[in-house]
């Protein structure tokens, strides 16, 4: 990293180290002599979780201001902290290694750093662990890379890079129908993001030259400079077109109806850790990208397409909830509930209120804690009961009280119970939504009832109702064996998530304050101007 | 003196015959001959051009083109032989193990 | 309860809890209001501890016997809350220097944010909307409910130690009960203490959760699981509207803090005048929430089913505390409509809606209670009906306030709050008493079965369809359970409104003022007024019926003979509450609580108040109202009970004597002889009442006809249409691929042909371009 | 008038050193296997001097791996020299021009051939002890000996053909005269026909060769005829001369147009453009994998050089749309769609790769079409050309790499069915992972080099076209209506990439997912394995980071020199 000391560039470290360690752990055993290779394989799980924990610690320290003494609530929107000195990657076409964080990305970075060790913990017994855990580390790198990259090329590279470890996770550790799911997941999201790529390229060749960059092309991928450049794309129609291209990529990742159908398949087949990361972090990439690129660079287009956002958000939310109710597979249900919740994020953004956007940000974060819990529960259910069918058994409260408790907590959090993380986001979004759109708020609000309905229904038909205090009704898949409760590591992972759910429900201001600052920043610095030029009024 | 365009016209006719033959006949040898006809059409053009422009290059081209044609036939026959030795046919249509 | 040690020893661990409040006051020198937050925070620390310890030490003997599976800790934390509540109450009553009319402690910005506003074409950051905070708010209403809540939570927790821990079926899962119980207490205390509508809502939802969990305590029972879901979903419907109400309120006032809103409810954010139409919708939305929580028509269907929960839960949550949350919310709306202070005029319609909903529910619930045979269901409908009374009273009060009659308004609101108090005490006790009955009947049944099992080989026969709550197997229990019978009698009297006993004062006030509103102000109040009047008589009927069916007459099954009076843990709270019901109401009425509760500005207890109240109950100046008052007493005291006695009255079997406190009633009832009502019982009306007026069926059918098919349709649509498109693309690509590959025939001749075709196309294109 | 012989001085030698090396290699390959202890008596004396040719072969010469070693060494040397003298430029004779562009392609060709040569070590196993049968041998023994001998002779044949292919290709890149270009192209093509048909014992070998040869000959005859028309029109086939005439032409002369059209057919076949590509998959399937790899990379690159010369040098108008724009755009779209669709359900990995190679030709043609749209300024044109050349360069890594993996399977007589790839990960995870990397790179997944090149191509198209939509368009729809149709080429590429993912991933899938037919380890061939791993690593390194930058710079300046010519 040039003359810069790595210690001054923690973001690069946390992004690249897991990748390096993961690759080494996968490659070294093939290269080393057999005896030491075996030793390495034996400790690879411990090394992996060690690295993951170290990164979680670093990010936590960064957040607490212990490292780099950063005051997170004081970052203006458009300004980044922990920026490194840009390192040339492909200077000929203006690609640099440039990282930075702000209030938009940091909660996501922290979330990723925390979720990785937790998901490792939950799948502590994974088969072929010497591949599984390094793969998760690689996944961590890819996810972190998306959130730290300030260069669109690098951003896109990481964006697609997340697909590969996830593809392998689904393929190698997935369920029955993993082939189809993995293919669908990969092709579907890849296709969408290639459209996004075209959008990025259009932006790219509208950039002004920066000295020393783009010797070949005369342009650069630097997002910060793009944002700063006045009127990046002069043609309004083209701007809108680019915005739509970007949206295709982001909406598919989120996912929003009608481009959501890859998600349930992927989730049902993915291993628990994969599902957790998929729902916890990968879905947020869509919203993150939207806020980071579409909204910041093209405020006018965003204003122009607010009705579209509302439509997508509403359809995802309402329709997603109803589809959820029609599901009989636990993981499918939870997956559709993710679709439904992601709809709220679009609605929050569409309010064009700092409050609504802060709500959307918090939703990203809260859903990032809750949905991994839900998937951990679903995974454990599958693990101990060998089925995912809702209603194939009753009364797990008797056999697995811990599992039942986590399941209940997770579902309650997901349906927006106060003092759990999801509620704050919901309320903020709804308040802002009322301010902007009035009675239209009834639609999302009434959907909360549907949400409650499907969770309660499922709860009734899994946790309760065995008709016998001493015995649940067990599914056929157990073949008469008695199911066990959670293993200690599953429990530890879920407890952490549950504790975080409560913590951020009771003390949302831990992250809320910086998110709120950021949202005010983007509205005041960019959107208001656009609103005035577009003469927007709700 | 024959105009270059006459020669070129003859070339067109020859070329058309060759091309037509190439995709209507199924005996590989005949197709090879058609290819020769096409090449000769080109040679005629070169010659015509050379005389028209009084350019010596055209003659050279012709000479080389003839050489190429010869090489082609040599190689072609060799390949057809090896085909015949395995599949016992030199029909373009019958040799179709590789398809789709 | 297997050990024979002195049970009081078990209470030692709660002593430190009791010491907290005094030591804070005398050692740390805290003000009572400063300690208010502990009411919520201490249980908040205790409840996870109970759950986790319970899970860890499940089955441990010490944990089971010494700590009652966490019950002792629960009791301790509730005792702490109670002691602090009493401390605050004391300070308030003596008018401590640190008390204003209301007191806000520790406001704290929970969420801060910006909002932008459009002024003209300009968008700018609003200064009005900044944050949502959290703090403690204490005024008279708070205090009343706080006391009710802490006191009843404590007592019912006490009761539970006797009730829950002696049942085999609860063994090893009582920590769950106590944990959720304490969590519920947190919700209730927090809701009462919250200083803004959002936190009110937050704790409101916590209560909803606990209600769900506790109804579903016997999770293995289908009916319990179903009832829990039903309760949660039904209240959730209301809650969603409540939340929408919050959004509107926030938009109007730029804050949800009571301090900000109540400071001047006629002025919204940025000094704008509040329009009554907008406020109407906000309040209506809030009210729908209240309707859901307080089980009023049309969201009432969940409450009877909620009786699936353990009886202490029914007593606490579904009778004494949580269901009052809706009332509390409506009382909180007083400043909005009080045009005497800064209220907004033109909200009469809202007041009417409240009163109408109350009237309808009161009548309907009472009617359904006529035919219930399940002792807890009767009480549940009674609860619904009594809460409806309070709603009617509040509706009338709001009406008065909104048209400027603030004295009448404060009075009827005070009466309503007082009724809330009386009802909470009486109904809590009634449920506990019914619990005592159920508990003992159940034990007796087990005992009988044990005996019979000796002679039969019919093994594996569980409880079968035996239902310990069915009054048709009881009768004559007055002799076997004197304390319970007395408590039940007193409670019923209070609910009926027998003069001089608790509920009488408040009910009287409500009915009289409702009529006053009807006669003097608003003809549309006639329907609720008439309905509550009629309901008074119906109350007399069904409460008497319940008592008589349970305690009077000859025993209806052999089980009765094996019933014994309950344990002290159960008896003690009954006795305490009996005293409060019998005397406390009267005493508070004397203290003028009626006026003082309604008027937050009322800061002196005066003898005037006492006289005014007593006078008003019997002898209002208006002759019409006086007529109403006497009519009420007549039908409630005489017509209802007498009719009940004619059907269900009867002596005990010979040779058995009831305690003198209740024997007079038994004797009295027997004098009205018995009337055969089987014809009536078979009528369509009775059938309709049995089926709860078909509301449940209606909802079920509607849901089954709409929601479930819609969900199925959505799932189908998603699978076959949206994902179908993707699948179609997949299969089309595959078949297209096969088609394309077919062109590669394998014949070199075709290849050449294809090349020639391509060549000609190129010519054509080049030609086209150049031409 | 100078000629190559008269101008042969040191500078020229240095200029064409790689070609000279290749030539030397060919000669050596002819001579060396015949070296022996034969002597010749000087007439009239008794002194016998060794003439080295003939007689009993030297023991070391007898090593059957020798041809392979010679070819590998020569190709490596050629590669190195062209790398070393990358910056040299100058004329050789009057029809060859050495510049960075041609040197870069020499690099590319020699690299591909080098890899093929390395792969052949395992693919065409030599018999270690070949000797002439003796009369005393039994019939079977004698047959075996003969077979061994033949095999070893074929080693020589094969490698000579590799070298001649290389020579033809690399000379072609230098040609400034269209006829010269064509002749060199024929040299390479004719050699490759034989290489395709090299496995004449198998049913498919001869057939593949025959098809490739027949179709190839027809189209090259067509091409030559087209060229002769150009000659008739212009009187010279010097490209600079032709270009000047083309630019000076006011109305398009039918001779010229038809001539160019016919040449497009010929070059289209070389790059594998639809509908001239039909013989391509058959040829790949019948040829040995390394040869298929050469066809897919070097031969395709050769076609593209020819196309670029024809389209960008000869027929590029000084301003406005090129007349071939529509043709090229249509051909591009049809090609990529056809290739991808056909690959989708194909069950032969080699055919899949062949179709994928067709699809890639489509992408590159689309990029070339963008240059012809006349919307690009010279910088943008250079950028697009850079993208295409860069793609051709990195293709050598991952396309060739993929074929190398197949050649490992082929060495054990498999590799023609998808099932042969099943469970490769279990048999050799490193190879399987490399294959997966190649597939992802072919699909254009970042951060692999296939992504970078595809990105650059799409970027080029978007760059020239997206600016064309009406600037005043207020909505996305009106903008989309007004945009130059070239823009939709980018969308076509994107959609096709999506389609292509399916079969690339399928290959990855079966390697990791299915269980193999056999658990035996793959053929032991360290050099090949090293080559595969190197390809995989370079695929990654050329995708992002400093190495990719230097390659881009290299390609960029090469294209600059090309555009200047």
Structure explained in plain terms:
The complex is a heterotetramer of chains A (538), B (100), C (771) and D (565). Chain A has one domain. Chain A has 21 helices and two strands. In chain A, α1 packs antiparallel against α2 and α7 crosses α10. Chain A is globular, with a radius of gyration of 23 Å. The model of chain B has no long low-confidence stretch (mean pLDDT 88). By secondary structure, chain D is mainly alpha-helical. Chain D folds into two domains: 316 residues, no CATH class; 246 residues, no CATH class. In chain D, the strands form two sheets. A two-stranded antiparallel sheet of chain D has the order 1-2. The model of chain D has no long low-confidence stretch (mean pLDDT 86). Chains A and C meet through α13, α15, α17, α18 and α19 of A and β1, β3, α7, α8 and α29 of C.
Query: What fraction strand of chain A?
Result: under 5%
- Which structural category fits the helices and strands of chain A? mainly alpha
Q: Which runs of chain A of at least 5 residues are low in confidence (pLDDT < 50)?
A: none
Shape of chain A: globular
- Element order of chain D: H for helix, E for strand: HHEEHEEHHHHHHHHHHHHHHHHHH
Oligomerization status of the protein chains: heterotetramer
Mean pLDDT of chain A: 87
Rg value of chain A = 23 Å
Biggest interchain interface, per-side counts: A-C, 75 and 62 residues
Distinct helical segment count of chain D: 21
Task: Give me some keywords for this one.
heterotetramer, A: mainly alpha, two-stranded antiparallel sheet, 21 helices, C: 771 residues, mainly alpha, two-stranded antiparallel ribbon, 4 strands
Give a nutshell description of this structure.
The complex is a heterotetramer of chains A (538), B (100), C (771) and D (565). In chain C, 68% of the residues lie in helices and 3% in strands.
Fold blueprint:
The complex is a heterotetramer of chains A (538), B (100), C (771) and D (565).
Chain A: H1 10-31, H2 34-64, E1 87-90, E2 95-97, H3 106-122, H4 129-148, H5 152-161, H6 163-173, H7 178-204, H8 223-228, H9 236-253, H10 262-269, H11 272-297, H12 299-304, H13 306-325, H14 330-350, H15 354-385, H16 396-399, H17 401-414, H18 421-437, H19 442-462, H20 488-506, H21 509-534
Antiparallel strand pairs in A: 1-2
Chain B: H1 4-24, H2 28-53, H3 56-87
Chain C: H1 15-28, H2 36-56, H3 61-65, H4 71-94, E1 103-112, E2 116-119, E3 122-125, E4 131-138, H5 140-163, H6 174-193, H7 197-215, H8 222-253, H9 258-263, H10 276-293, H11 302-305, H12 311-320, H13 324-332, H14 334-337, H15 348-369, H16 375-402, H17 406-453, H18 482-496, H19 503-521, H20 526-551, H21 568-590, H22 593-598, H23 607-618, H24 623-648, H25 660-670, H26 678-681, H27 684-690, H28 695-705, H29 707-743, H30 748-770
Antiparallel strand pairs in C: 1-4, 2-3
């Amino acid at each position: 990293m040039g003359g810069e000391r790595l210690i001054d560039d923690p973001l690069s470290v946390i992004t690249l180290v897991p990748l390096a360690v993961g690759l080494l752990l996968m490659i070294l055993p093939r290269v080393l002599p057999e005896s030491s290779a075996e030793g390495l394989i034996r400790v690879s799980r411990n090394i992996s979780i060690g690295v993951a924990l170290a990164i979680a610690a670093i990010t936590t320290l960064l957040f607490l201001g212990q490292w780099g003494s950063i005051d997170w609530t004081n970052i203006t929107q458009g300004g980044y902290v922990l920026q490194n000195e840009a390192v040339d990657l492909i200077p000929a076409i203006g690609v640099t290694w440039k990282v930075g964080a702000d209030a938009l990305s940091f909660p996501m970075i922290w979330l990723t750093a925390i979720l990785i060790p937790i998901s490792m913990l939950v799948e502590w017994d994974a088969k072929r662990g010497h591949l599984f855990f390094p793969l998760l580390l690689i996944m961590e790198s890819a996810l972190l890379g998306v959130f730290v990259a300030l260069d669109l090329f690098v951003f896109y590279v990481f964006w697609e890079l997340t697909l590969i470890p996830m593809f392998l996770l689904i393929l190698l550790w997935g369920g029955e129908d993993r082939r189809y799911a993995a293919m669908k997941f990969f092709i579907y999201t890849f296709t969408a993001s290639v459209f996004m790529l075209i959008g990025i390229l259009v932006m790219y060749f509208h950039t002004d030259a920066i000295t020393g960059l783009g010797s070949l092309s005369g342009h650069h991928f630097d997002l910060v400079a793009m944002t700063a450049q006045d009127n990046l794309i002069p043609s309004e129609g083209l701007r809108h077109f680019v915005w739509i291209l970007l949206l295709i990529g982001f909406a598919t990742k989120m996912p929003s109806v009608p481009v959501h159908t890859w998600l349930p398949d992927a989730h049902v087949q993915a291993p628990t850790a994969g599902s957790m990361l998929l729902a916890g972090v990968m879905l947020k990439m869509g919203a993150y990208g939207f806020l980071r690129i579409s909204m910041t660079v093209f405020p006018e287009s965003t204003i122009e397409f607010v009705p579209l956002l509302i439509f997508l958000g509403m359809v995802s939310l309402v329709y997603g909830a109803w589809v959820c109710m029609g599901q009989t597979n636990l993981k499918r249900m939870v997956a559709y509930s993710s679709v439904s919740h992601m709809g709220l994020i679009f609605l929050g953004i569409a309010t064009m209120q700092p409050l609504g956007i802060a709500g959307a940000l918090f939703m990203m974060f809260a859903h990032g804690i809750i949905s991994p819990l839900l998937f951990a529960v679903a995974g454990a259910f599958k693990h101990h009961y060998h089925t995912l069918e809702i209603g194939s058994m009753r009364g797990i409260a008797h056999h697995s009280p811990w599992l039942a408790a986590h399941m209940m907590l997770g579902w309650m959090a997901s349906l927006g119970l106060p003092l759990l993380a999801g509620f704050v986001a919901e309320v903020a979004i709804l308040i802002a939504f009322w301010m902007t759109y009035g009675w239209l708020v009834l639609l999302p609000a009434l959907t909360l009832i549907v949400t409650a309905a499907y969770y309660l229904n499922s709860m009734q038909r899994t946790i309760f109702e065995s008709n016998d205090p001493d015995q649940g009704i067990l599914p056929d898949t157990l073949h008469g064996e008695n199911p066990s409760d959670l293993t200690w590591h599953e429990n530890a992972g879920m407890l952490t998530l549950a504790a975080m759910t409560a913590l951020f429900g009771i003390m949302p201001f831990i992250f809320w304050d910086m998110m709120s600052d950021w949202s005010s920043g983007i509205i005041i610095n960019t959107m208001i101007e656009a609103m005035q030029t577009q003469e927007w009024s709700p | 003196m024959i105009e270059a365009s006459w020669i070129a016209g003859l070339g067109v006719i020859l070329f058309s015959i060759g091309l037509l033959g190439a995709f209507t006949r199924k005996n590989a040898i005949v197709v090879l001959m058609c290819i020769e006809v096409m090449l000769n059409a080109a040679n005629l053009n070169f010659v015509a051009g050379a005389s028209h422009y009084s350019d010596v290059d055209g003659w050279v081209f012709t000479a080389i083109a003839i050489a190429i044609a010869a090489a082609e036939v040599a190689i072609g026959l060799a390949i057809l032989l090896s085909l015949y030795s395995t599949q016992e046919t030199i029909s373009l249509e019958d040799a179709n193990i590789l398809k789709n | 309860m297997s050990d024979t040690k002195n049970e009081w020893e078990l209470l030692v661990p709660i002593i430190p809890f009791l010491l907290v409040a005094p030591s804070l006051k005398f050692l740390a020198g805290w003000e009572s209001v400063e300690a208010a937050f502990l009411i919520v925070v201490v249980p908040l620390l205790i409840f996870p501890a109970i759950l986790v310890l319970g899970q860890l030490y499940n089955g441990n003997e010490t944990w089971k016997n010494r700590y009652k599976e966490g019950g002792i800790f629960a009791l301790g934390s509730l005792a702490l809350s109670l002691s602090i509540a009493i401390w605050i109450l004391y300070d308030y009553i003596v008018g401590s220097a640190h008390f204003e009319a209301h007191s806000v402690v520790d406001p704290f910005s929970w969420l801060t944010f910006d909002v932008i506003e459009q002024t003209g074409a300009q968008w700018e950051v609003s200064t009005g909307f900044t944050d949502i905070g959290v703090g403690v708010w204490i005024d008279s209403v708070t205090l009343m409910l706080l006391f009710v809540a802490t006191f009843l939570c404590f007592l019912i927790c006490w009761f539970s130690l006797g009730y829950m821990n002696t049942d085999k079926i609860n063994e090893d899962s009582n920590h769950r009960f106590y944990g959720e119980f304490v969590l519920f207490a947190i919700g209730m205390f927090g809701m009462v203490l919250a200083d803004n509508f959002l936190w009110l809502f937050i704790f409101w939802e916590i209560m909803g959760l606990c209600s769900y969990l506790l109804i579903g305590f016997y999770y293995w029972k289908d009916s319990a699981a179903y009832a829990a879901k039903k309760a949660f979903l039904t209240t959730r419907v209301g809650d969603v509207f409540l939340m929408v109400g919050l959004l509107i309120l926030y938009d109007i006032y730029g804050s949800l803090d009571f301090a900000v809103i109540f400071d001047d409810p006629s002025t919204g954010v940025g000094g704008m005048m509040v329009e009554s139409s907008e406020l109407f919708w906000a309040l209506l939305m809030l009210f729908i929430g209240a309707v859901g929580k307080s089980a009023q028509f049309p969201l009432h269907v969940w409450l009877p089913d909620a009786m699936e929960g353990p009886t202490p839960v029914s007593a606490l949550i579904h009778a004494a505390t949580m269901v009052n949350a809706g009332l509390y919310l409506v009382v909180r709306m007083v400043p909005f409509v009080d045009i005497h202070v800064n209220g907004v005029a033109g909200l009469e319609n809202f007041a009417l809606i409240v009163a109408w909903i109350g009237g309808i529910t009161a009548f309907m619930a009472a009617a359904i209670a006529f035919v219930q045979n399940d002792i807890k269901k009767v009480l549940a409908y009674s609860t619904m009906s009594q809460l409806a009374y309070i709603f009617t009273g509040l509706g009338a009060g709001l009406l008065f306030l909104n048209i400027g009659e603030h004295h009448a308004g404060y009075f009827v609101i005070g009466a309503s709050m007082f009724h809330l108090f009386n009802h909470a005490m009486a109904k809590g006790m009634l449920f506990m008493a019914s619990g005592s009955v159920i508990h003992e009947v159940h034990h007796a049944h087990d005992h009988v079965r044990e005996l019979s099992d000796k002679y039969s080989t019919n093994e594996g026969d569980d409880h079968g369809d035996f239902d310990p709550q069915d009054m048709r197997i009881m009768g004559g229990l007055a002799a076997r359970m004197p304390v319970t019978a007395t408590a039940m009698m007193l409670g019923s009297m209070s609910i009926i409104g027998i003069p001089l006993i608790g509920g009488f004062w408040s009910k009287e006030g409500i009915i009289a003022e409702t009529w006053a509103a009807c006669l003097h102000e608003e003809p549309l109040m006639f329907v609720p007024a008439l309905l509550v009047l009629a309901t008074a008589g119906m109350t007399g009927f069904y409460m008497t019926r319940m008592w008589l069916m349970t305690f009077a007459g000859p025993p209806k099954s052999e089980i009765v003979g094996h019933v014994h009076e309950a344990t002290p843990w159960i008896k003690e709270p009954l006795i305490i509450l009996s005293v409060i019901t019998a005397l406390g109401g009267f005493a508070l009425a004397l203290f003028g609580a009626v006026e003082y509760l309604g008027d937050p500005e009322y800061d002196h207890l005066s003898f005037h108040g006492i006289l005014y109240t007593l006078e008003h109950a019997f002898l209002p100046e208006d002759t019409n109202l006086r007529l109403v008052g006497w009519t009420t007493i007549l039908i409630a005291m005489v017509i209802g009970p007498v009719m009940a006695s004619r059907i269900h009255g009867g002596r005990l079997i010979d040779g058995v004597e009831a305690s003198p406190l209740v024997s007079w009633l038994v004797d009295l009832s027997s004098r009205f002889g018995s009337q055969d009502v089987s014809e009536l019982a078979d009528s369509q009306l009775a059938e309709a009442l049995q089926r709860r007026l078909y509301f449940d069926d209606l909802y079920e059918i509607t849901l089954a006809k709409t929601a479930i098919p819609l969900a199925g349709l959505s799932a189908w649509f998603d699978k076959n249409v949206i994902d179908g498109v993707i699948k179609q693309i997949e299969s089309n690509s595959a078949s297209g691929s096969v088609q394309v590959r077919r062109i590669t025939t394998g014949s070199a001749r075709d290849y050449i042909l294809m090349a020639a075709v391509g060549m000609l196309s190129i010519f054509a294109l080049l030609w086209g371009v150049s031409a | 008038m100078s000629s190559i012989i008269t101008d042969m001085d040191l500078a020229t030698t240095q200029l064409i050193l790689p070609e000279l090396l290749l030539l030397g290699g060919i000669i050596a390959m002819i001579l060396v296997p015949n070296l022996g202890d034969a002597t010749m008596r000087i007439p009239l004396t008794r002194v016998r001097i060794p003439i080295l040719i003939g007689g009993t072969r030297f023991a070391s010469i007898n090593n059957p791996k020798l041809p392979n070693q010679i070819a590998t060494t020569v190709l490596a040397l050629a590669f190195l020299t062209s790398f070393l003298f990358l910056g040299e430029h100058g004329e050789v004779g009057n029809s060859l021009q050495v510049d960075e562009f041609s040197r870069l392609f020499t690099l590319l060709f020699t690299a591909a051939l080098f890899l093929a040569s390395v792969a052949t070590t395992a693919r065409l196993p030599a018999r270690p002890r070949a000797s002439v049968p003796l009369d005393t041998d039994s019939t079977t023994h004698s047959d075996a000996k003969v077979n061994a001998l033949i095999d070893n002779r074929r080693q020589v044949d094969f490698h000579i053909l590799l070298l001649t292919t290389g020579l033809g290709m690399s000379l072609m890149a230098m040609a400034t005269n269209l006829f010269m270009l064509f002749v060199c192209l024929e040299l390479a093509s004719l050699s490759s026909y034989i290489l395709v048909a090299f496995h004449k014992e198998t049913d498919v070998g001869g057939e593949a060769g025959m098809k490739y040869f027949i179709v190839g000959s027809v189209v090259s005859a067509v091409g030559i005829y087209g060229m002769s028309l150009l000659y008739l029109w212009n009187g010279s086939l010097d490209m600079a001369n032709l270009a000047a005439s083309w630019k000076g032409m006011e109305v398009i002369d039918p001779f010229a147009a038809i001539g160019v059209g016919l040449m497009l057919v010929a070059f289209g076949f070389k790059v594998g453009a639809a509908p001239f590509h039909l013989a391509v998959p058959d040829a790949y399937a019948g040829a040995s994998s390394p040869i298929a790899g050469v066809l897919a990379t070097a031969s395709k690159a050769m076609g593209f050089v020819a196309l670029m010369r024809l389209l960008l040098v000869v027929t590029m108008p000084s301003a406005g749309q090129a007349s071939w724009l529509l043709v090229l755009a249509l051909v591009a779209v049809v090609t990529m769609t056809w290739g991808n669709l056909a690959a989708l359900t194909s069950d032969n990995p080699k055919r899949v790769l062949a179709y994928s190679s067709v699809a890639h030709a489509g992408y590159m043609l689309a990029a070339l079409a963008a240059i012809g749209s006349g919307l690009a300024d010279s910088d943008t044109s250079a950028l697009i050309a850079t993208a295409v050349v860069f793609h051709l360069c990195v293709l050598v890594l991952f396309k060739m790499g993929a074929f190398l993996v197949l050649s490992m399977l082929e060495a054990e007589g498999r590799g023609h069915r998808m099932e042969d790839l099943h469970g490769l990960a279990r048999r050799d995870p490193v190879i399987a992972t490399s294959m997966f990397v190649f597939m992802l790179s072919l699909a254009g997944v970042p951060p692999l080099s296939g992504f970078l090149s595809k990105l650059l191509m799409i970027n080029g198209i978007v760059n020239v076209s997206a600016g064309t939509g009406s600037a005043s368009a207020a909505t996305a729809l009106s903008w989309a209506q007004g945009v130059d149709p070239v823009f939709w080429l980018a969308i076509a590429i994107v959609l096709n990439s999506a389609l292509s993912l399916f079969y690339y991933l399928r290959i990855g899938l079966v390697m990791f997912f299915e269980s193999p037919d056999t658990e035996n380890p793959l053929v032991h061939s360290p050099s090949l394995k090293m080559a595969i791993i190197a390809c995989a690593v370079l695929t990654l390194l050329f995708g992002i980071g400093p190495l990719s930058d230097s390659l881009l710079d290299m390609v960029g300046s090469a294209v600059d020199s090309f555009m200047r010519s």
